[in-house]
Q: What sequence folds into this?
């Protein structure tokens, strides 16, 4: 799947989760060990075309997430690479114990696909928000967590995760019509953060939808003569410790995530920063430890202070202090 | 040469008592291990296709012990089948960092197919193995052993519905119906009309005397002829089977024997085992 102007616009319109289904459909031919299951969310995962083209590679699990993870693990034991999808709280939370035993303890090669993680379902509310998903998955030894910044990165991540032998959680965020971060082809490597913009004063580490907001915030801060580096931490676990340590020349480090500040990307960065004497101060932005009131996606970003304007303002206040 | 399954089942019971005794003051799930030995004897002594020289053979049959706390019942069957020696059993069972802790840890070389112990997870895993076998055109069969108390878990019911929907006739489930769970009788803790329920869902349901190896064997063979749907053998068993003071006494769900009890258990089993009914 070529990363070009037309494709990135299409993927942007589709949003991350439908791009996921499209990517599997495009790569299925060359992925001979691929198997896909969904918890009654085939269409929501953008898998319609994939299922039409490759019915032998798909199984509906019904609304049985725990069973789905167990089945996927059994298939993985005999050579399949299984992607299983549901809304992020259901795939990570409902099936948590199965994930712990099968993907964690037995390290089976199953890729969990969490749809509409963060606040992506907007007005649908907290039953469907994926706020603690990163904390849950991060607590499982050996689990990889990937949160793509846009459609192009979803395509890259799907391919890379298929090639990777081991359990992983693919965290898909945002709405349809998500902003574009990556306009041209680029090198993507699991576990290796990408510096999208250089800067002297502040380094922002962000993932998913927050990468675009961070880039926008960096532009706003430039106008205030604050120079900001933005690092795309698409792989939240294992965290790129080198990328974190490479930022210690900054006056301030900032971690931004569309998810709970408890146990997420910010916590992952903090676990490195806290051990290093030379590390500068770290500021963590995300959804505070609460169940936020349900609202439309844009309203939520504003209310939670996770849009570029709020991010820039908070950083400015902190730097000028 | 056909193995004497009755003899094997008795030997497994004796090995359970020895291993539990060797574990010293540590608690062992003796009751549930004893209730499943006849099922294990039929599986490892006759029904299952495995090769101890090539334990990871893709075409092997798989056994998933879903009621993982009764792993000792599996360990002795694997030991008796040659996956590891009696010395290895003794030096690893409940020993610090040994490969045979209370709950099984996946170890294909030693015949352990799946890490279990968190109840209600073995059936889904077995379903995955069964689907993979069918898709890959292998004749491998999948056997899953569950407990009746374990059937409380909601995840079991997800497995029950989907195994039928996927038409997994290469899957044979045993439910070790010993009537007791950790806190007491299943009839009091969480009664389930399991045979009727599984029949309603669409399983090929058979009931067997879980301590009659001939009955278990003939029904298992019949179940393996079933086409288009999975089979379940609901095996009526006695928790603590073979040792008079353990039978139907739930303090042996997890316990340890003093020397007098050990000597008595050993003596009873040497004489063929106590023959109590449920």
A:
């Amino acid at each position: 799947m070529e990363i070009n102007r037309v494709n990135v616009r299409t993927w942007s319109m589709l949003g991350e989760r439908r791009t996921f289904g499209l990517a599997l459909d495009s790569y299925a031919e060359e992925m001979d060990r691929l198997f896909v299951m969904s918890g009654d969310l085939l269409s929501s995962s953008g898998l319609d075309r994939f299922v039409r083209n490759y019915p032998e590679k798909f199984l509906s699990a019904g609304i049985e997430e725990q069973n789905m993870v167990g089945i996927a693990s059994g298939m993985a034991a005999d050579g399949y690479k299984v992607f299983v999808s549901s809304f992020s709280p259901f795939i990570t939370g409902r099936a948590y114990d199965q994930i712990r035993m099968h993907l964690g303890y037995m390290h089976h090669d199953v890729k969990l696909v969490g749809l509409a993680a963060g606040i992506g379902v907007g007005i649908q509310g907290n039953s469907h928000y994926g706020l603690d998903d990163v904390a849950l998955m991060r607590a499982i030894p050996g689990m990889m967590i990937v949160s793509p910044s846009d459609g192009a990165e979803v395509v890259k991540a799907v391919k890379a995760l298929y090639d990777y032998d081991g359990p992983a959680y693919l965290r898909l965020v945002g709405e349809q019509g998500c902003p574009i971060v990556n306009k041209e082809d680029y090198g993507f490597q699991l576990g290796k953060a990408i510096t999208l913009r250089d800067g002297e004063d502040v380094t922002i580490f962000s993932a998913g939808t927050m990468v675009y907001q961070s880039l926008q915030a960096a532009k706003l801060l430039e106008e205030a003569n604050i120079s900001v580096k933005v690092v795309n931490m698409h792989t939240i676990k294992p965290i790129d410790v080198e990328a974190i340590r490479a930022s210690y020349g900054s006056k301030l480090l900032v971690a931004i995530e569309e998810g709970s500040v408890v146990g997420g990307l910010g916590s992952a960065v903090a676990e490195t920063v806290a051990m290093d004497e030379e590390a500068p101060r770290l500021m963590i932005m995300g959804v505070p430890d609460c169940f936020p009131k349900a609202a439309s996606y844009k309203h939520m970003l504003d209310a939670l202070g996770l849009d570029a304007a709020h991010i820039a303002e908070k950083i400015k206040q902190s730097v000028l202090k | 040469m056909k193995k004497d399954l009755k003899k094997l089942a008795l030997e497994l019971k004796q090995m359970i008592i020895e291993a539990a005794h060797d574990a010293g003051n540590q608690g062992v799930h003796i009751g549930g291990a004893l209730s499943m030995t006849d099922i294990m004897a039929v599986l490892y002594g006759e029904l299952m296709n495995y090769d101890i020289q090539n334990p990871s053979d893709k075409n092997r049959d798989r056994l998933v012990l879903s009621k993982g706390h009764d792993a000792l019942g599996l360990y002795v069957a694997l030991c008796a089948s040659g996956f590891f020696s009696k010395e290895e059993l003794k030096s690893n069972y409940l020993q610090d960092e040994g490969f045979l802790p209370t709950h099984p840890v996946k170890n294909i070389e030693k015949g352990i197919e799946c890490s279990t112990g968190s109840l209600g997870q073995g059936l889904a895993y077995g379903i995955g193995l069964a689907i993979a076998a069918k898709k890959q055109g292998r004749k491998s069969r999948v056997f899953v052993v569950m407990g009746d108390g374990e059937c409380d878990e909601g995840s079991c019911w997800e497995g029950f519905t989907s195994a039928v929907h996927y038409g997994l006739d290469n899957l044979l489930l045993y439910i070790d119906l010993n009537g007791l769970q950790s806190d007491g009788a299943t009839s009091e803790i969480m009664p389930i009309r399991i045979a009727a329920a599984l029949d309603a869902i669409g399983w090929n349901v058979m009931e067997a005397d879980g301590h009659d190896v001939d009955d278990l064997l003939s029904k298992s063979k019949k179940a393996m002829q079933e086409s288009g749907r999975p089979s379940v053998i609901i095996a009526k068993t006695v928790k603590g089977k073979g040792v008079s003071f353990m039978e139907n006494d739930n303090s042996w769900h997890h316990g340890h024997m003093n020397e007098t009890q050990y000597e008595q258990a050993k003596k009873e089993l040497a004489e063929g085992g106590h023959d109590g009914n449920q």
Notes: The radius of gyration of chain A is 19 Å. Chain A has two domains: 5-173, 194-320. The interface with chain B takes residues 56, 59, 61-62, 64, 66-80, 97-98, 100-102, 105-106 of chain A (CB under 8 Å). Chain A has a mean pLDDT of 97.
